[in-house]
Design a protein that fits this description.
about 400 residues; Nuclear Transport Factor 2, Chain: A; ten-stranded antiparallel sheet; seven-stranded antiparallel sheet; globular
Length: about 400
Amino acid sequence: MKKKKIFFLTGIIGVIILFLTVYKSGEEKVFSSPLTIISEGKIPRGGTLYTCLTEEGLSNKEVWQISKALKKIFDVRKCKANDNYKVIKSTTGIFKEFKYYSGMNIYEVNKTVSGELIALEKKILLEKSVVGINGTIKTTLWSAMYEQGLSAETILNFVDIFAWQIDFLTETRQGDTYRVVWEKYSNGQKKKEGKILIAQYYGKETKNHTAMNFKDGYYDLKGRSLQKQFLRAPLNYRRISSFFSRRRFHPILRYWRPHLGIDYAAPIGTPIATVADGTVLFKGWKGGYGRFIKIRHNSVYTTTYGHLSRYAKKIRKGAKVKQGQIIGYVGSSGLSTGPHLDFRMIKNKKCVNFLRLKFPSKKRISTSHRAEFNRLKKARLRQIAVILSSSVSPKKIELSSRSKPK
């Protein structure tokens, strides 16, 4: 009886202490039981894990021990701003447990009865859902998708998938429609966007395109890869200020002469990407072109990029570049009336109109995978049919779900 009373009084005292310890360093403290205090926080911009833990009342020795224990599974120097952490201590201030949340991983440091610190790595378990949406463009693709709740990541993935078929900055029109089926992961607190499974775009200017994810890439319904030999444009631009022409009045030189390239108007500093794999033939100043890059892609095609403000790192003569790799940034160097990229495509040593060229797909579905591809295609088209038949379109529609660690 006496022991029960002492235990009760101890519990009451513990609860009172916890309620009195509500705030510390501007962050709210919560408790899970009368024996522990849980302190939660985020790594501030420019901060370190060391400063955060010392502000939580841990000694330099304890912080060092935690870092040492984590060393085997996580480099604390890679802690990023806004990553969450949790410190668990007893009501008397004795350290018991530390948790650090990075991406889809949890890094834990637990104190054993003997006082040893043990580090563990755990994966955050999320439930996978397959969702779809059907929409119509009123102004831009971005605004239409964003208003329907699609994340920036999913919108950019959609644009990237069709990068070889559609220029979404110039070829979208009011009334164009799109459909997307993609994966989402969530556990109530943590959310993550997954890959796009199938996407469709029906445009007045672009015609109709379907992209289906299969193994290592995206393919049309005939099994042809959507990835082409060349990208449709070397940058995200605001407008084309000058088209390919055999006779154009030069705004600075003030006389008529050929303009055998395309001028993409864009703000200074806009990244410029190479339109295909290749080798840098020239990097440097070239007369009226200003800062200039020339890339050979194969024995037939070469491209040039002029009026740059600066070059990307590691771009030099002889360097190998990959399709979509940033090689420089928009500027107004050389003979230029404003910031833009002068882009030229050279075929067999002659400049050609890049906007009129059509390139074949890089590859097709192999015969050995054709049956599997056709089965998946039927399943994906059924998902598209669900979206189109729904009375709540264009809202997101749950197509299927199952639990899966991610």
